[in-house]
Design brief:
This protein has 395 residues and is of the alpha/beta class. The protein folds into 3 domains: 79 residues, Alpha-Beta Plaits (2-Layer Sandwich); 91 residues, THUMP superfamily (THUMP fold, 2-Layer Sandwich), CATH 3.30.2300.10; 209 residues, Rossmann fold (3-Layer(aba) Sandwich). Helix content is 40%, strand content 20%. The protein is built from 13 helices and 15 strands. The strands form 2 sheets. Strands 1, 2, 3, 4, 5, 6, 7, 8 and 9 form a 9-stranded mixed sheet that branches. It has a 6-stranded mixed sheet with strand order 14-13-10-11-12-15, sandwiched between helices. It starts with a strand and ends with a strand. The mean pLDDT is 93.
Length: 395
């Protein structure tokens, strides 16, 4: 019955003269998300996008709900700019909705007609058309009654430049901005709960994400690495393929363990991670680093620890979860599909050589003095040389 999916955007509508750039990116991202379903063309016109219903509706809905930048979308019947055609379409979509809700002639359902006349050349005003359609539907369906305040069914009509669109359902989208409009960022992706959620949050703000994972084989298993790649595949479902740079971190951790004070090991390890992530960011043309830190959650996430860690980075470090508590992070991880992977019992490099009493208020001068015992440049160069890149989420 339905011809198209009508797609609406939200925040993009607030943009000025460069709005078309955001629209074009959203259009391209929708096409990429649906391409393997045989849908290669997405029409864009006057603040709306239209996708032909060539594949199963359920599969398309699942894909589109993961495309950032979409506020909502609706399966619609498209008809000419003719009142009689609009009336027939309205009867058609209401009959389908009643059948889907199992509402028979003896049942009761309240409804409302909402008309939006973007095309001011259409000869009937929005209130007039809504009244006419409401009268037609009341005659056609005895189970209906009008409630303009809290209707159980909304019949919506959009009068646009070339066609009219009639529908009864609005499906929520992911919101945010299209991935790719805010530049590239490098996500420090561990196997834990927090960092995948941080990546999701930045993708929602339009960031094209590259991931870096620090692997300490043989202290961490190959299964630990596969767990991280599985997390990257989930994230790729929201924004397209994600390259994961798997950095060999073993020798760096061994050197820190051998030469640095135990209480500073975590702080120095985090500084080495930022140095490596920044080197990869510059190589890949990324403009920021992204971490899953939440203020006060662990010893390396105090204000003093973050200050000392940040001192090695020239690029901005985004921490989208900094004000979240653990329950909020877990709830979001469950919603986006990363939680069950994150809690698999495969440890990452952050669990190795953990001191019993880590310093929670490190001093920069003390940390820099401790690092003098390390061949920092050589260790970084060796780790980068052994980096493996795995692209996750390719279709």
């Amino acid at each position: 019955m339905y011809d198209l999916l009508l797609i609406r955007y939200g925040e993009i509508g607030t943009k000025g003269k460069n709005r078309h750039m955001f629209e074009q990116r959203l259009q391209a991202n929708i096409q990429a998300a649906l391409k393997d379903l045989g849908i290669e063309e997405v029409e864009r016109a006057h603040t709306r996008l239209y996708v032909p219903l060539k594949a199963g509706l359920d599969g398309m809905v699942q894909r589109l709900q993961r495309v950032f930048g979409i506020a909502s979308f609706s399966p619609v019947v498209r008809v000419p700019l003719e009142v009689e055609a609009i009336k027939e379409a309205a009867k058609e979509v209401v009959a389908a909705s009643l059948q889907e809700r199992h509402i028979g002639p003896e049942d009761k359902l309240t409804f409302k007609v909402i008309t939006r006349r973007a095309n001011k050349g259409f000869p009937i005003t929005s209130p007039e058309l809504s009244r006419d359609l409401g009268a037609v539907l009341l005659r056609e369906f005895p189970q209906l009654s009008v409630d303009v305040h809290q209707p159980q069914l909304s019949v919506e009509v959009e009068i646009r430049e070339h066609y009219s669109y009639v529908y009864t359902e609005r499906i929520p989208g992911a919101g945010g901005l299209p991935v790719g409009v805010s530049g590239k960022g490098v996500l420090l992706l561990s196997g834990g709960i927090d960092s995948p959620v941080a990546g999701y949050q930045m993708m929602k703000r339009g960031v094209d994400t590259i991931a870096v994972h620090f692997h300490s084989y043989p202290f961490t298993s190959e299964r630990a690495k596969e767990k991280v790649l599985d997390l990257a595949k989930v994230l790729a479902g929201y924004g397209g393929p994600i390259p994961v740079h798997v950095v060999h971190f073993t020798e760096i951790q061994k050197a820190i363990n051998e030469h640095c004070p135990p209480k500073l090991m975590i702080t120095i390890m985090r500084r080495m991670m930022l140095r490596l992530a920044e080197a990869i960011a510059r190589r890949e043309g990324a403009a920021a680093l992204i971490t899953g830190e939440s203020l006060g959650q662990v010893s390396s996430q105090t204000m003093d620890s973050i200050l000392v860690t940040n001192a090695v980075a020239q690029l901005p470090v985004f921490r989208p979860l900094i004000g979240f508590d653990k329950t909020e992070i877990i709830d979001l991880a469950e919603r986006i599909g990363t939680y069950k992977i994150s809690i698999q019992p495969y440890e990452d490099c952050c669990t190795i050589f953990v001191p019993r009493h880590p310093e929670t208020h490190p001093k920069l001068a003390e940390v820099e003095k401790a690092e003098e015992k390390l061949a920092v440049d050589e260790l970084l160069e060796e780790a980068l040389a052994q980096t493996e890149v795995v692209v996750c989420g390719e279709k």
